[in-house]
Design brief:
It is a single chain. The protein is of the alpha+beta class. It has one domain. The chain contains one helix and three strands, in the order E-E-H-E. A three-stranded antiparallel beta sheet has the order 2-1-3. Strand 1 and strand 2 form a beta hairpin. The model has no long low-confidence stretch (mean pLDDT 89).
Length: 66
């Protein structure tokens, strides 16, 4: 069985500590391209939630040991 390289992220409002968006990426993009993609999503999420983009950050969600 082939395993897909899917990474999961949550975007968090640093003022409240609440997760405000979840995102999954199966992209084979480089680390720099992935960061650029995540920054675009952060900007969109911040705008949609009426907060400054510097207030939102992302964390990769680990699935734990397999």
């Amino acid at each position: 069985m082939a395993t897909e390289n899917i990474k999961h992220y949550k975007f968090i409002n640093s003022k409240t500590g609440n997760a405000i968006y979840y995102y999954s990426s199966s992209s084979t993009a480089s680390a720099a391209e992935l960061k650029q993609e995540l920054e675009k999503i952060r900007d969109k999420v911040a705008s949609e939630n009426g907060v400054f983009m510097e207030t939102v950050y992302w964390e990769e969600i680990s699935e734990g040991p397999k």
